Structures are given as C-alpha cells and as structure tokens.
Amino acid sequence: MSSTLDCSNDNMITYEDWIGNESVELLDELPPLEVTDVHITYLNQTSLILNWTESPSDDTKDYTVYQDNRLIAVVPSTPSKLQPIQYKVTGLTPATDYTFTIKARDYSDNEAEGVRVSVRTQGLHALAMNGVSDYIRLPRMTFDTVELTCQLNLLPNKEYVFIDARPGISTAYFGTNANGNIQFGPVWTEVLVNGKVPPNFNDIKNMTAEFTLTISLSVPGTSEITIFSNYRHMFHVPGRIYAINVYHGETLMAAYNLTEPFQGTAITDTSGNNRTATLQGGRWMMD
Q1: Averaged pLDDT score across all residues of the chain
Q2: For domain 36-120, which CATH number applies: 3.10.450.120, 2.60.40.10, 2.40.370.10, 3.40.50.2300?
C-alpha cells in the first residue's frame, strides 16, 4: 500500500507500508519555500553583492548560489530564518551579462526551484563631469534610496551638490556647503559609504577613488532627481559617474550604467522600468 501524509505546510511525507514485519520508510520530498527580495548591490567591473531574504521554511538548511547554472557557493541559513543574507561574488569579467540563481535547500537536500536575477557588470569607461555645466536628471519617480557610484575631484572651500531631489521633497539634497564641509537635508536618515556608516561624513569629500554613496529617506517621496548639480543646475560636481540605482524599499525603480559609452543625451534605464534619464554634457573616459 502506498499513501501520503501531509505533515506540515512545508513537508510532504510519503511512505510504503508492506504487509509483514518490514519497516516503514518516511521520505521528505517537498522542497522549502523560495527566498524573496533577491537583488544586487555594489556592482563594479569584477564583483557584486547578491542580497536576499531567507526562506520562511523552518527546515531550510542552506542556500545554493548558481552563476549561469554553475554552483559557486553554499551559504548557511540563520537560526531565526527570514533574515537578510549577502554573498559577494568576485572574479567577474567587465561588460558581461550574468544570471544568478538562489535556491533554498532543506535537511533532506530538497532544493527549491530558485529565484533568478540577471545583471551586466560595469564596463571599462566612466562618465567624466566637468564641474561647470554637466549634470544628469532622473525622471520623476517614487523612491526612498539613491545609490550613486562615483569619484570626486572637489576643490576645497566650495559648495557642491551631489544629489538633489528638492523639486518634490523638501530638504532632499546632499553635498558640501561654502566651507567645503559635507551637508545634507534632515530627510536623509541614513548615509552609507561602500555599505558602511563613515566615521566622519567629511571623509566623503576627500574620496578621490571610486566609491558608492547610498542615502535613504525616512519615508518614500516622489520627485525628479538631479545628479552632480542642484535642481536649478548650479553647484556642479567635478568627477566621474559609474552607476546610479534608485530603490523603493527592495524594489529597483531605475538603474543607469555609465561605464559603457552611448550616443546622445538619453540614458537607458537598465531596470526595465523605462525611466529614461537625461544627460547634460559629460565625456567618456577609460577608467
């Protein structure tokens, strides 16, 4: 006789009960539930960070990470489950498309189908901004986080605006004041440099190497966003821009890759949401 027992929401157990003294074999054949909120941060030419939220299944043992269908890592689950997980992928090739899949696996080695995310690594160029008239304008959207990967060539004791969303959100600016010190509006409640809170915000103005600035609002807002000048196109920033990503929670609202040259002023939104940005000036440089 063959039958099935539904033992929980996460596990289906089958058994075969033979007449006689043979033992009953119980088999767990149901995979755990999928991970959620899979997304990529800190993307550059040769590396990136994969992010996801754990499977809610209690019997999840670990997570298998595949790069283009090739297993590259096994990441243990946490005791509490439902925690955010990060895994850094290295050794990638510039300007190359990749697909990553995160699969939850249980203690019976049942593996979920997996959640996929595709990405293209940064190219070998950067968009150089002259600090006089160059800027980028992103279209109106609802967001709470802006992630800007750039390099700065600031002069001392001069006012600059790196990011400005004041057309729609009061005090939503980030830059330096006339004394050259970092200042930003109180609506930005979190400021990270390469994923960490800087010991001193003024360290940002001295960063002449590529870095990622991530700033987050206390609550989502809706506005256009100007990069490397204020919204009135003053206080331009000299330096290079590599990438811009805009999020609403864990949802990627817009993404712009400035490491592969293109013609014209329209900057394609690589998130697939068709939020085309506008480039004023700029010139392409090998990085």
Answers
A1: 91
A2: 2.60.40.10
